Structure formats: structure tokens, C-alpha cells
Amino acid sequence: MHRGKGMKFVGDSRIPAQRKPNIPKDYSEYPGKTEAFWPNFLLKEWMVGAVFLIGYLALTIAHPSPLERVADPTDATYTPLPDWYFLFLYQLLKYKFAAGDYTLVGTVIMPGIAFGALLLAPWLDPGPERRPAKRPVATALMLLGLISTVYLTWESVVTHDWEKAAKQGEIVEAEVDKESEGYAIYAEQSCIGCHGDSLQGGSGPSLLESQQTKESIMDIAVNGIGGMPANAFKGSDEELDKLAEFIAETAKANQ
Fold it and tell me: Any idea which UniProt keywords this protein has (predicted)?
């Protein structure tokens, strides 16, 4: 027997004796459990995305965005309503402890604490367990946030005056006689640029809601008011009279 025959030298078991190239296993080793990323998996992703995209497009066509009338910054009676995902914060501001003198509490402090607690949940409960029952801190924070959001959203929906909201934002077609001589003067004097083609307002206020009399309208057209400069009207006295009468009558008819 020769020395060393039948003997093997064993080194560190963590180092393989034979280095093999890093080649992934063949898909055939996992029948029915995996597939090629290209084109099989990616094609399925595209097909699912296309279905959702077509679905969203169909919804936008069937249910267009509910538009309201042109915003009027002078209307203090208008009650705005945020989108559904902000309704819980909107409802929070209705309570005494989060509104009025405590608006900062409802808009910054309370939401900041709530979202900050959710962000810190992984560090407040760093346990390895995956079951919710064994992660009481993280589970409690998530349930508290979910229940609060759902409750406040529900309260906002059931307590909101939807009929009043529909009326205050309703688009009403103004009754304007665009064939009249007064409207011709209105267009000729470039009133449309500020007050709109139907007197609905634009960069200037709406004339349909004006409470001015014929005489006061004539005075404003000559002497100006607010952002309207003096001597904006360049026509004759007869044209001024017809223009003021047209505006006063149209405003009265639409109120």
C-alpha cells in the first residue's frame, strides 16, 4: 500500500471543491410553477394592463367628470367639497377641537401624529412574526388608522347636504338675447373680454348677478369701479343708455 493511497485532504467545507458556473436551473425542473419572463410573463402583464386601461377609458366616457359653474371668489355661500380620499380630513375640521382657534391641531398636528405613527410602526414593533395577533403595536396602529378613516369618511358623506351642493354648483344657461342691439354694443365695446360672451364673468365679475340699476351701470361704465378703469366705454350717450338697459334687464331676468 502506497503512502497516501485512499486518503483525501478535506479543506473548509464552505468552499466547494469544484467551482461551477452560476447558471440558473432549467424551467423544466419546475413544471407548472414558473415561466420565462420574456415573452410569456411580460405579455400577460401587458394584457392585464390593457384590460384595465380600456376599462378606465370606458368609465370616463360613460361617467364624465361632474363640472360646476365658473368659480366665483366673491360667493361666500359656496361650500367646497374635496375629493373622496380627503373627506376624512374634511370631516375632522368640522369638530370643535380641530376647527376655529384649533385649526392648526386639525390640519397639522393630528394628521402629523397619525401618519408619523404609521411610518414608525416598523420600528415600534420590529418583531419577526408575521401574524397580526403577535404584532400588537403594528396591528393596533393600522386598525386605528383604518377605522378612523372609514368612520370620518362615512360621517362626511351622510352629513353633507348633497341637494344644496348640487344647486350651488349647477351650471345654468344664462338667458341672453344675443340678437339685441344692446348685445351688439356690448360686443363692440369689448366687454366680452372681461365679462364673457354671456355676461357670465371672466377676468371681470359676472354681470348676471349684478344688483346695479341702469343709472349706476352707466356711471360705472364712465367713471369705473374697482379694477375697471374710468372711460372704459367709448361710444355715444345713446349707445351707453342702450348698453346699460340691456345689462340691467338681462341681470334681472337671470336672477
Answer: Electron transport, Heme, Iron, Membrane, Metal-binding, Transmembrane, Transmembrane helix, Transport
